[in-house]
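Let us practice reading a record.
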Amino acid sequence: MNRSDGSLVSSSTGVFYPYQHQDFYAMDSLFLSHMKQEEVWDFQSVTQVHLGFLGFLTLRGFLRESLSLPKLQVKGLSKHWKTYLAKVNFLGKGVPWESQEFIPNLVSDSLIPALTFSGKGHWAHEFHWERVEKDTTSVFFSATNKQSEGDIAISDLMKDFLQYSQTHHYLDRAYIRKENSSYLYLNSKETNPRVFFRENPTDLPEFLFLVAELKTKNPTHSN
């Protein structure tokens, strides 16, 4: 809800309990729900690393930052989460959320993702992350604090993203979200993806978000 001066606010404290699933719509409903002044996100039921959850959590953190709200806190991270976040030094990349439990910065040779399909100057804050696991590459992209005039078309982001990804991959599924609408893309190996559009108005500041799963076109299998 809004304060009398028009600024976004909600009740003082909230604890959120995401659970493990693959549904982008359910993630949307939870992670883009009304902001609380103070927030704790308990990940004890999300035991496996999934870039959808990481992406939505990071997006919410950036939106809170743009509203000058305190950093959200995360607890209940499993061994899998802690190991992954430590190996890639994720919390050292300037993400706007904090873990209540210690996550060390491990020395590793993990490559830092290159920002290769964005950077057109529309947004003050753009964050791109990838994770490669066997024949699947997961990606998320978050953009907040709009600094250009006019509407930013989702089709522009998707065009850039497809050009970026199609050399070695095909798009398995993707979810693109703005503050007032969303697109779900499914199964595009042989044909154009099926597209599902929804109007999802929020009272959040303008943002652009993409989370996608790509499959390698010709995966190599080791013996």
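A brief commentary: Confidence is low (pLDDT under 50) at residues 1-9.
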